[in-house]
Design a protein that fits this description.
Layout: E1 8-18, E2 21-28, E3 39-42, E4 45-53, E5 56-61, H1 63-68, E6 79-84, E7 103-112, E8 117-122, E9 135-138, E10 141-149, E11 152-157, H2 159-163, E12 175-180, H3 182-192
Antiparallel strand pairs: 1-2, 1-6, 2-5, 3-4, 3-6, 4-5, 7-8, 7-12, 8-11, 9-10, 9-12, 10-11
């Protein structure tokens, strides 16, 4: 379980294929606090640490994860948002984030509002639902939905979040990982079942 409050960055230093899986080797300034078998959210994707060597570590993404996320688009040198799992007794900022990405979204528009940014993102209509002032997770970041449409939404980004996450690197036309709010997922499932 995560909260969507980004702790730090990891930088991709190597990528290699192992069968249908992809192993990502990353470097982090908080790697000394990691342990093997630990779950860490990478751009919102819960991945298990499999190897640690100094300030570098490795995680493996299976075919299912690669098909649902933007991990396959990562390149050496890319910056990845990371968050370790919620620790019992910590303050709970953000919202409940499972680290299970529902789909990738397309960045349609980015507006610089002279102090903040507004981003419009579209997604497959069947992937999930949003509501205005509800929660959404983009690349692992807990954000508040501003405008909500059946296949799109917008979020407003404060300067601190813009500067301390990899949102500052995205461009119109890029793809981001989306995890819809878990409550909305349950409501959508109930509706599909005729409840």
């Amino acid at each position: 379980m995560f909260t969507g409050i980004i702790e730090s960055f990891s930088n991709v230093v190597d990528i290699h294929q192992e069968g249908s899986n992809v192993v990502f080797h990353l470097e982090s300034n908080i790697c000394n606090e990691f342990k093997i078998d630990q779950s860490i959210a990478h751009n919102g994707i819960c991945l298990t640490v499999t190897e640690i060597n100094g300030n570098k570590y490795s995680v493996t993404a299976i075919k299912e994860t690669l098909s649902r996320t933007n991990l396959g688009q990562l390149n050496i040198g890319d910056k990845v948002n990371i968050e370790r799992c919620l620790k019992a007794g910590d303050r709970f900022d953000g919202h409940y984030v499972q680290g299970h990405v529902d789909c990738i979204g397309h960045v349609d528009e980015i507006h610089d509002l002279d102090g903040s940014h507004m981003i419009f993102i579209s997604h497959p209509i069947e992937a999930g639902i949003t509501v205005g002032k509800g929660s959404i997770t983009i690349n692992g970041i807990s954000l508040t939905v501003i405008d909500s449409f059946p296949d799109a939404f917008s979020v407003a980004i404060i300067p601190y979040t813009w500067e301390h996450t990899n949102l500052t690197d995205i461009k119109e036309g890029d793809f981001v990982n989306i995890e819809f709010d878990v409550l909305g997922k349950y409501l959508q499932k109930i509706k599909l079942m005729g409840g």
